[in-house]
Predict the structure.
Amino acid sequence: MELEYRLIFKATGFFSLITIGVPANVIILIIFIYLRFSEKKLLPSNCILAMLALVNLMVIFSKGVPQALHSVGFRNLLNDTECKLISFTYRICRGMTICVTCLLSCNQWIILAPPSKTWLYLKQGVAQSLPWIMLLLWFINIAIYPSCLIHVRAIANYTTSIYTLHLEFCNHDFMTFESYVANGVAIAFRDFFFVWTMTLTSCCIVFLLYRHGKRVQGIRSSDRNLGKTMEYKAARSVVLLVTIYVALFGLDSSIWLYTLTISRVSPVISDTRVFFGTLYAALSPIVIIKTNKKIKTVLTCRMNKNLIASIDTYTNSSF
């Protein structure tokens, strides 16, 4: 009975994540692709958001979908090659969500920084070098996980070492203590470096917004709306994204640290950690859609066109 309840909650959680996350991230990608071709360019911040939507989508497909299928009874779906690809894709894209969110926060901080030659140079440098920065982030994450392509295998009747991560469909056997520790150190260094960086830049953004709010308090009420510029609103959405990520990362890390203190990890704890580790991929696109002006404009225009088309169809059929 306890197992049935666990699987019901697991299925509900992961299928909800897929139902929300996949359409939301696809909408973001389609709109930004449309804007790229219709307006011939995208702002650096929107390019970063498009990349975030892409890696979110890949996280859901590589982790959320297998977890959802496992919860409804599917077993031994993947062979060795598929396990390697799924594991490799998930780990790289999970790492990219950290890096891209950090890049988004740093970019917004640079945009809001006081005007000076140094900050102007940084703004221009980020805009011009953004493809190379993205490529560097992909390279960093790919370089951390070569073991996924070597040591990950489908679950079967074979002997594994004590340095093995037992996943739902696959086993990741690091074989040696040195390999296990090196992989863990590389991941921990990457995670905490980018999380602390995004936290620091978000705190700087909050300080700049606070100072900006104090500055416009003395302005007469008819002009106060001037303080709420596009950059101001974009900065709030970036801070919200970072806050969500840091909160989920904190829950994930806390559960992981707890598992180190016990000899036998309950499946409920493992499922909970995986869910929180994947939840950002479904929550962040909702925040982006609700706060991004370009996306809201395109969606509003599309809804108005559909409404007008429906009215015209109804009018023509009536007469």
